[in-house]
Amino acid sequence: MQDEKEKLRQEGRARFTLGSAFFRPQAQTARELGLLAAAVQRQRTGQLRVLETMAGCGIRGLRYGLEAGADFVWSNDADPALLPTLKQNLAHNQPSLAPDRHRLTHQGAVQLLSRCFVDQDFYDLVDVDAFGNPSAFIAPALGAVKVGGLIYVTGSDGRSLTGHAPENALKTYGFFPAATPAAKNRDCGC
Fold first, then answer.
1. What is the pLDDT of residues 66-101, one digit of tens each?
2. Residue 137, Cα to own-chain centre: how many angstroms?
3. Whole-prediction pTM value?
4. Fewer CB near the terminus (10 Å): N or C of the chain?
5. Cα separation of 70 and 136, whole Å?
6. Structurally, what CATH architecture does the domain formed by 27-156 represent?
């Protein structure tokens, strides 16, 4: 029987395996909202360069390339052990994704975002999908996004951010959010 982590999966047009990456199928809606934002940005500006700072298995970057029409995607994860999975997943999606239009690296997100700022290498969309509190990545992301570009921030601290743990949000983020119908599933962490 094939190992569950090595099983070839599909989401949208992307084919991928998990390797040792953390993956939440329940977060597909968040990934699709990012794709929608990216597609609108591409339509608005005529181009789309994406910086994916915490790639995991790389599903977001693959989908930005395959479905949002990204001209270039830089997929990065701090864990060097994930680089083979990212390479394998890019290969699963060729020839639809040209390897010369997709860069894969492993470094810390803040280091990567800071390097983009120093090099003046700015992106139309900067994707930050943090494990936990994403607030430490906001200021560095501002330095890597083009003027008029988008920063798409998600995180696994969804209960606090959507008003289902307002005390945590007040303590961590300094605001008290109201629960809305947009965040219905209180059990999925979003």
1. 999 999 999 999 999 999 999 999 999 988 888 889
2. 12
3. 0.85
4. N
5. 26
6. 3-Layer(aba) Sandwich (3.40)
